[in-house]
Write a structure and sequence with these properties.
The chain is of the alpha+beta class and 387 residues long. It has eleven helices and 17 strands. It has one domain: Chorismate synthase AroC (Chorismate synthase, AroC fold, 4-Layer Sandwich), CATH 3.60.150. Helix content is 33%, strand content 20%. β1 and β2 form a beta hairpin. The structure holds flavin mononucleotide (FMN) and the ligand C=C(O[C@@H]1CC(C(=O)O)=C[C@@H](OP(=O)(O)O)[C@H]1O)C(=O)O. Flavin mononucleotide binds next to α10. The site of flavin mononucleotide has 20 residues, from α10.
C-alpha cells in the first residue's frame, strides 16, 4: 500500500490517492470524516479551524460502499479557499480579502519552512513555500490513516492516542486501554487526568496571552497487532524505523521513542527487557518496557509510541527575522495562528502510526480481498500461538 497527497493550504482542496487496499473493505466518507473532526479541534487552535469543516468525499475506488481493489481517491475541500481566491491565482470574490492577500510575503518566520524553502525552490514570494509546508496537509494524512484504522478494525487491531504533556504540564499516570479509549473522542486537551486538563488549558491561555506558543508530548497505543509485523533482515523493513520516519515527518514533530523511551538510557537491562511467558493464550511478556517492538518486529504486546512536538513557530510575540528583499531586520506581526496544536497533532500521530501498521500488515499478508486477508491473519495468529 502507498499513498500520495496533494493540495495547498488555501487552494481548493486536498487530494489523496491510496493504492494497494484490498477489495471488499466497507468504506464511507462519513466514517473517515469522523476522524478528521477529531483532528480539527483541540484547545489552543486558531481561527482557521472555525472556518473549516473538514469533510471527506470518496471520488474513486469504492462502489456500493465497498473498496474495489483499485486506487481510492479522497478529497477534502478547503472552506477558507473562497477568501484566498486572488492569492491562489483565481479571481477574488471578496474585495477586502483581495487587498489583504495581494501582499507578496518576503518576511520568513523563524522555525517555519519559509526561508529555506524559498532558497531551495527559488521562490521570492514565500507564500509559494508556506502554502504546502503548512500542516493543512495533515488533514490528508488523517484521511489515509482513517481508512487504515477501518481496515485494522476488521482484523481486531485498534489504535488510540492521548496527550501526555503540554508546555511542561505533564500527565505521568499509567492508564488502562479502557481509560485511554474513554478520552479518544474528546477533542479538547485529550489528557486522561481531568485536573491536569484544566492545568493544560490554563497553560495554553497564559501562553496565548503572552503571544507565545506551546508544544508537548503525545502517546499512541496499538492493541492486538500480531507478532512478526516488520522484519529484522533489512534496515528499511524495520517497523520501529518506519514508524519513527512517519511520525517525525508530521509538521513540528521533533522526537519519537518507544515504550520507556529515553528513560531506558538510565535503566539497567534487567528492568528494560520484557521477560517471556507462555500459557494457553500463547506467548506474552511480564512487562512492556520496550513498547511492543523487538528487532524491528511487533512482539504481540501493545505498541507504545511516544512523540514530541515543538512549539508552533508563528508567534504573536515576534522574533527577529530578515526581510529577503530589503535584507533589513524586522519584528514580524501575524494575522492568525494556532498557539498550541498538540491535541490535534496527537490525532495526526495516531493516524500516521495506523498507516505504518496497515502497510506492514498488507506486506506480511499480501491479499487481494478482505476475506483472504482475514483468513491469513487468523491462521498466522494460531500458528504463532502454538509456536
Ligand atoms: C496540527 C498542526 C497544526 C499546526 N498549526 C500551525 C500554525 O497554526 N502555525 C504555525 O506556524 N505552525 C503550525 N504548525 C507547525 C508547522 O506546520 C511546522 O512547524 C512547520 O511546517 C515547519 O516544520 P518543522 O517544525 O517540522 O520543521 C502546526 C502543526 C501541526 C501538526
Ligand atoms: C489549516 C490547518 O492548520 C494550519 C497549519 C498552519 C501551519 O503553518 O502549519 C497554519 C495555520 O493556517 P492559516 O495560516 O491558514 O491560519 C493553521 O490553521 C489545519 O490543521 O487544517
Amino acid at each position: 500500500m502507498r499513498f500520495l497527497t496533494a493540495g495547498e493550504s488555501h487552494g481548493p482542496q486536498l487530494t489523496v490517492i491510496i493504492e494497494g487496499l484490498p477489495a471488499g473493505l466497507e468504506l464511507t466518507g462519513d466514517a473517515i470524516t469522523q476522524e478528521l473532526f477529531k483532528r480539527q479541534g483541540g484547545y489552543g487552535r486558531g481561527r482557521r479551524m472555525q472556518i473549516e469543516k473538514d469533510t471527506v468525499e470518496i471520488m474513486s475506488g469504492v462502489r456500493h460502499g465497498l473498496t474495489l481493489g483499485s486506487p481510492v481517491t479522497l478529497i477534502v475541500k478547503n472552506d477558507d479557499h473562497k477568501h484566498w481566491l486572488n492569492i491562489m491565482g483565481v479571481e477574488p470574490i471578496e474585495q477586502s480579502a483581495q487587498e489583504e492577500m495581494k501582499r507578496v510575503i518576503t518576511k520568513p518566520r523563524p522555525g517555519h519552512a519559509d526561508l529555506v524553502g524559498g532558497m531551495k525552490y527559488n521562490h521570492r514570494d514565500l507564500r509559494n513555500v508556506l502554502e504546502r509546508s503548512s500542516a493543512r496537509e495533515t488533514a490528508a494524512r488523517v484521511a489515509v490513516g482513517a481508512v487504515c484504522k477501518i481496515l485494522l478494525q476488521q482484523l481486531d487491531i485498534e489504535i488510540f492516542s492521548r496527550v501526555k504533556s503540554i508546555g511542561g504540564v505533564r500527565d505521568e499516570g499509567t492508564y488502562s486501554i479502557e481509560q485511554i479509549k474513554s478520552k479518544n473522542d474528546s477533542n479538547d486537551v485529550r489528557v486522561i487526568n481531568d485536573a491536569l486538563a484544566q492545568g493544560m488549558r490554563d497553560r495554553i491561555d497564559a501562553a496565548k496571552k503572552a503571544g507565545d506558543s506551546l508544544g508537548g508530548e503525545v502517546e499512541v497505543t496499538v492493541v492486538n497487532a500480531p507478532p512478526g509485523l516488520g522484519s529484522y533482515v533489512h534496515f528499511d523493513r524495520k517497523l520501529d524505523g518506519r514508524i519513527a520516519q512517519s511520525v517525525i515527518s508530521i509538521n513540528a514533530f521533533k522526537g519519537v521513542s518507544f515504550g520507556e523511551g529515553f528513560k531506558m538510557a538510565d535503566m539497567p537491562g534487567s528492568e528494560v527487557q520484557d521477560a517471556i511467558m507462555f500459557d494457553e493464550h500463547g506467548y506474552s511478556r511480564l512487562s512492556n518496557h520496550l513498547g511492543g517492538l523487538e528487532g524491528g518486529m511487533t512482539n504481540g504486546m501493545p505498541i507504545v509510541v511516544n512523540a514530541v512536538m515543538k512549539p508552533i513557530p508563528t508567534l504573536y510575540k515576534p522574533l527577529q527575522s530578515v526581510d529577503i528583499e530589503t535584507k533589513e531586520s524586522y519584528q514580524a506581526s501575524i494575522e492568525r495562528s494556532d498557539s498550541c496544536a498538540v491535541p490535534a497533532a496527537s490525532i495526526v500521530c495516531e493516524h500516521a502510526v495506523a498507516y505504518e501498521i496497515a502497510r506492514a500488515v498488507l506486506e506480511e499478508f499480501q491479499s487481494n480481498y478482505m476475506e483472504q486477508l482475514t483468513e491469513q491473519i487468523t491462521a498466522h495468529r494460531e500458528r504463532v500461538r502454538q509456536f
